[in-house]
Write a structure and sequence with these properties.
single chain, about 375 residues, alpha+beta, 2 domains, 15-stranded mixed sheet, 7 helices, about 40% strand, elongated
Length: about 375
């Protein structure tokens, strides 16, 4: 009997040691799998610093995630994140569905415009959704992003262009797209962020992922965006530069299965396009550049609402989502209305409503 008990004890001890060894090995195996998955792209490589498995609550986390251009000619990563956590939703599991939630802390996306394609990066034409599905092969109910950043960088200008939308907080709910898991198939998204050194932007959106063609309703509001913070960008990509001013912007865009309708309403406050000291003395602009900027300043002053010190328009958008029409004449008459009739307000009008957002097309997936 004692021999039997010893053998059982040794077997249990051996099994326990084996389980401990497997548990200790799993994070390294997972890290190797994730690094291989992140490097599937032809142009980009990826790696993760650490993997932590939390089996007791059906979760795993990644620390120091990086995606970067493989040729080594771009100094900033396309994507990086301090922490990413994938968690299985037990409440949905009880309903028979493998659904999870994703939290991303400190993510950063860097778009780079270099002199050559090798020194530039945008991440387009890459199958990132397939890679994400391999990392988290569950349906995502909720996605939360904390302290995010989207940056645009051009190292080949003088001075360099380095602007960003930062402090991004984003939450998307109800992405499961199933009547069995939710009372509605409409997903909601809310986001806020800070622009450069001054200004805020917010987004409120609804979308129906059940329709084949895009079906969504998006409201965007930007306030007190300092245009001088984008001076290097405007110097490079626009025929004039702004010496001072702020931007307020309101936009509503709705798409009903690919048919889009909406507007964009930009309002420029206290704009200064031309400055003799700034453009001629400091920047050294020549006759042509100075003349263009002086003409732009004259036109700006001509169409400015003097009481509110603002230039504004309202640009209608309508048509097919792939190539929407913008009414040039309507936009011009809106400039005149703002200047000589009544100054526009920088708020979202709530005038664009998607009639069939919660209706599912008969051909949509069930």
């Amino acid at each position: 009997m004692k021999q039997v008990k010893k053998r059982i004890g040794y077997s249990l001890a051996g099994l326990l040691l084996a389980l401990i060894a497997v548990r200790l090995y799993l994070p390294y195996a997972a890290a190797n799998y994730i690094n291989t998955t992140l490097s599937q792209s032809d142009k980009y490589d990826g790696r993760v610093g650490d993997v932590d498995l939390m089996l007791w609550r059906g979760a795993y986390s990644l620390k120091y995630v990086l995606l970067y251009k493989a040729n080594g000619e771009v100094e900033r990563p396309l994507f990086k994140a301090d922490y990413v956590e994938f968690t299985l939703s037990w409440s949905q599991l009880m309903k028979g569905a493998a659904v999870g939630r994703v939290v991303v802390n400190g993510p950063e996306i860097n778009f780079v415009d270099g002199n050559t394609s090798e020194s530039s990066q945008s991440g387009k034409d890459e199958n990132w959704l397939s890679i994400a599905d391999q990392l988290f092969p569950l349906r995502i109910d909720k996605l939360a992003i904390n302290d995010g950043k989207i940056a645009f960088y051009n190292p080949d200008t003088s001075p360099v262009i380095d602007i960003a939308l930062h402090d991004i907080q984003l939450e998307i709910n109800n992405l499961v797209n199933s009547d069995n898991l939710s009372d509605t198939r409409v997903a909601t998204a809310k986001a806020t962020g800070q622009t450069a050194e001054q200004g805020t932007i917010s987004l409120d959106a609804k979308l129906n992922p059940a329709t084949k063609a895009p079906t969504f309703d998006i409201d965007i509001q930007a306030d007190n965006v300092g245009l001088v913070n984008f001076k290097n960008l405007l110097d490079t990509y626009a025929p004039f530069d702004l010496e001072a001013g702020t931007l307020t912007l309101a936009a509503e865009v709705a798409s009903n299965e690919g048919k889009v309708k909406g507007y964009i309403k930009p309002i420029l406050h206290n704009v200064e396009v031309f400055s003799w000291k700034g453009d001629i003395e400091r920047d050294g602009d020549g006759l042509i550049e100075g003349s263009i900027e002086a003409l732009s300043a004259f036109v700006t002053e001509l169409f400015e609402n003097q009481s509110e010190d603002q230039v504004a328009t309202r640009i209608p958008i309508e048509g097919d989502l792939s190539s929407p029409d913008t009414e040039t004449w309507a936009a011009f008459t809106a400039i005149l209305k703002n200047a000589f009739v009544k100054a526009f307000q920088g708020n979202v009008e709530e005038s664009i409503e998607l009639e069939r957002l919660e209706k599912v097309d008969n051909t949509a997936e069930g």
